[in-house]
Amino acid sequence: MDISKDQLIEDIKYLISVDGTKTDINPSYLEYFTIEELDEIKTDLQIKKENKKEFAKQYVEELYDKITT
Fold first, then answer.
1. How many domains does the chain have?
2. pTM, whole model, 2 decimals?
3. 46: how many CB neighbours lie within 10 A of its CB?
4. Can you give the residue range of the structural domain that contains 64?
5. Are 12 and 18 in contact, with CB atoms under 8 Å apart?
6. Please, is 30 exposed, middle or buried when counting C-beta atoms within 10 Å of its C-beta (0-12, 13-18, 19+)?
7. What's the pLDDT score for residue 69?
8. Secondary structure of the chain in the HEC alphabet?
9. Is the model's pLDDT at 1 over the cut of 70?
10. pLDDT tens sequence across 8-49
């Protein structure tokens, strides 16, 4: 695996933030995870974020349709 543990932690902090800014996480908590576990957490967060984005897009499209019809 080419990505470092520190980079994975930074990526996770970004993914759990609401507005795309970094979020503070207790670093000692994340140190207990292996690189593989952190990578899995990151992947799960990416999927969840994408799903929320798709839901929001559909919701906005429905609202737009209601407003314009």
1. 1
2. 0.69
3. 13
4. 5-68
5. no
6. middle
7. 81
8. CCCCHHHHHHHHHHHHCCCCCCCCCCHHHHCCCCHHHHHHHHHHHHHHHHHHHHHHHHHHHHHHHHHHC
9. no
10. 988 888 888 877 676 777 767 877 899 999 999 999 999 998
